[in-house]
Amino acid sequence: MQISTRDRAVAERDINLLLVRLGGTNLGQAEGAAIVAVVPQSSYGEFTRGLAQIGSWNLEASRSSLPDPVHVAVRLAK
Q1: Which of 35, 60, 61, 77 has the least C-beta neighbours within 10 A?
Q2: How far apart are the first and last CA of the chain?
Q3: Can you tell me the distance from the alpha carbon of 36 to that of 7, in angstroms, rounded to the nearest whole number?
Q4: What CA–CA distance (Å, rounded) separates 32 from 34?
Q5: Taking each helix axis from N to C terminus, what angle separates 8-22 and 44-54, rounded to the nearest 10 degrees?
Q6: 6-59 pLDDT, tens per residue?
Q7: Spans of all domains in the chain
């Protein structure tokens, strides 16, 4: 996933708050300014709706069925 935002620090904070609220976990940073996290499958839809509230985002790859938990990498872009 990639999310476009004007303020990277605010977006990181908001994504972390969203993860905590949904029972997800931030696993840390990866190359390319990505937040690597896991989200319970049951909360994935709410997670994507929450990302839309944080900034403009797009899904770079999708799967027909999701594992539980769902592993995601959210790349922050300006």
Answers
A1: 61
A2: 14
A3: 19
A4: 6
A5: 160
A6: 898 999 999 999 999 999 999 998 876 689 999 999 999 999 999 999 999 888
A7: 2-77
| pLDDT score of 63 | 72
User: What is the b/e burial string over 20-54, where b = at least 16 CB atoms within 10 angstroms of the residue's CB?
Assistant: eebebeeeeeeeeebbebbbeeebbeebeebbeeb
State which H helix or E strand residue 11 sits in. Answer: helix 8-22
At residue 77, φ and ψ (nearest 5 deg) are -130, 155
For residue 19, what is the enclosing H or E element?
helix 8-22
